[in-house]
Amino acid sequence: MKLRGLYAITDSQLLAGKFLAYVEAALDGGVTLLQYRDKSSDEARRLREAEKLRELCSRYKTQLIINDDAELAARLGVGVHLGQTDGPLTPARALLGSKAIIGATCHSHIELAEQAAKEGASYVAFGRFFNSSTKPGAPAATVEMLADARKRLHLPICVIGGVTLENAEPLVGHGADLLAVVHGLFGADSTQEVTRRARAFNALFKI
Ligand SMILES: Cc1ncc(COP(=O)(O)OP(=O)(O)O)c(N)n1
Ligand SMILES: Cc1nc(C(=O)O)sc1CCOP(=O)(O)O
Ligand SMILES: [Mg+2]
């Protein structure tokens, strides 16, 4: 499967009271990867919500990724995204198997991405490219490093952090394969607008 297009990421606060409706609206517009990102420690709710997302994703033929938690990903038979402090990639690959999608946060460091590739990552994520209300303190990355990363890396590159329809085009132009978006997608006033935004993000890959 080609990892290219919109990578939608959920946010439990932003989506409170409209979680499944907004996720389904995004899937309807086209989503390559959907990440379940819930930073709470309510394990029962996380399992329940992740199971619902797995069902929805299977209906829309979208791949589900769990943030942070390789054990939960293994339990559901889906992929995982791991940051630099979320545990090593090699055991996660052994746990999830060769076909699972495993992503790695690399901030703005191409060396971290090269290491992640060696350890079996399916894609690498760089960010934050713009101001992010979801994660304001994330370290910054630049379009120049993205262009350099594109020349040096041979696996899909994901970009994240404040990505919107207004600023995403240069990221795709400089080699991004996946646009990872929370607020720029789900911070919409209606399900119709979520679907429109998802379609518009995907259209950036067809230019
Ligand atoms: C696609 C994608 N890229 C980066 C991140 C950030 O991961 P991490 O640094 O572990 O931070 P948290 O999201 O866990 O707060 C991500 N989740 N997804
Ligand atoms: C979860 C996350 N990680 C980032 C990083 O740079 O590693 S930025 C970020 C938040 C992404 O949300 P939004 O699209 O609303 O900015
Ligand atoms: Mg993490």
From TrEMBL:
It catalyses: 2-(2-carboxy-4-methylthiazol-5-yl)ethyl phosphate + 4-amino-2-methyl-5-(diphosphooxymethyl)pyrimidine + 2 H(+) = thiamine phosphate + CO2 + diphosphate; 4-methyl-5-(2-phosphooxyethyl)-thiazole + 4-amino-2-methyl-5-(diphosphooxymethyl)pyrimidine + H(+) = thiamine phosphate + diphosphate; 2-[(2R,5Z)-2-carboxy-4-methylthiazol-5(2H)-ylidene]ethyl phosphate + 4-amino-2-methyl-5-(diphosphooxymethyl)pyrimidine + 2 H(+) = thiamine phosphate + CO2 + diphosphate. Binds 1 Mg(2+) ion per subunit. Mg(2+) binds at residues 68, 86. It comes from the Bacteria. Keywords: Magnesium, Metal-binding, Thiamine biosynthesis, Transferase. Gene3D superfamilies: Aldolase class I (3.20.20.70). 2-[(2R,5Z)-2-carboxy-4-methylthiazol-5(2H)-ylidene]ethyl phosphate binds at residues 132-134, 162. One of its GO terms (cellular component) is cytoplasm. It is an enzyme of class 2 (transferase). One of its GO terms (biological process) is thiamine diphosphate biosynthetic process. Its cofactor is Mg(2+). Its EC number is 2.5.1.3. One of its GO terms (molecular function) is magnesium ion binding. Residues 6-184 form the Thiamine phosphate synthase/TenI domain. The keyword Magnesium applies. InterPro entries: Aldolase_TIM, ThiamineP_synth_sf, ThiamineP_synth_TenI, TMP_synthase. Belongs to the thiamine-phosphate synthase family. Condenses 4-methyl-5-(beta-hydroxyethyl)thiazole monophosphate (THZ-P) and 2-methyl-4-amino-5-hydroxymethyl pyrimidine pyrophosphate (HMP-PP) to form thiamine monophosphate (TMP). This is Thiamine-phosphate synthase. It comes from Pseudomonas cedrina subsp. cedrina. The gene is thiE.
